[in-house]
Amino acid sequence: MSTRVLLVDDEELLRVAFTMILRAEPDMEPVGEAADGDAALRLTRRLKPDVVLMDVRMPGTDGIEATRRLIRESPQTRVLILTTFDLDEYAFDALRAGASGFLLKNTRPEELLAAIRDVARGDAVVSPRVTRRLLESFAHQLPATTLGGDERLRPLTPREREVFFNVAHGLTNPEIAAAMQLAEPTVKRHIGRILSKLELRDRVQAVIFAYETGLIRPA
């Protein structure tokens, strides 16, 4: 089954280039193009794409607000943000709005395709370590919270909170397993339960949530 992709960018040349790349892949289907956030929302409602490639700096409704509204209206659709710089305040805001990751606009075709496939499977494209770097850079935008005292963390058991703490610090499953002396499948089960209990989409959202609730603080 093909992954249905909606392309959103005010640069027509970029949309054309990405469409050509996608059409060459047997498991990809570019279903539409939009030049601004409002058009992206209309097309998402009508076409129900699996993945939206979303520019951030567009006239009218920008990619951040469009992502926020799109995730709320169509939670089954994943958003990949297109940005110019890897440490970009827009990318940070997009992740907080619910995007599953971001790509640089000059990314290579094979990296673009791999990212779309990963996101379509429910994975995040941005690693937790890169997310932490973004959070550290824009820590002034984070809300003031009591360290680890947010009521939203209450559903987690002490062991799940410890696993969550390690996820939020950017550790991989093998690294968490070694640090906590657990089997890797056990770590995966803990993470699955954590995401389910906290209603988080992926590990990137988990890192953001950990900062917003005060479980960890910027260095």
Mean pLDDT: 85
Spatially, the strands of the biggest sheet line up as 2-1-3-4-5
**Rg computed from alpha carbons, rounded to a whole number of angstroms:** 18 Å
What would you call the shape? globular
Distance between the termini: 44 Å
Low-pLDDT residue intervals, each spanning 5 or more residues = none
Number of helices: 10
Order of helices and strands: EHEHEHEHEHHHHHH
Class by SSE composition: alpha/beta
Helical fraction equals: 40-55%
The biggest sheet amounts to: 5 strands, parallel
Tally of extended strands? 5
Strand content: 5-15%
Describe the structure.
The protein has 219 residues and is of the alpha/beta class. It has 10 helices and 5 strands. The termini are far apart. 38% of the residues are buried. The mean pLDDT is 85.
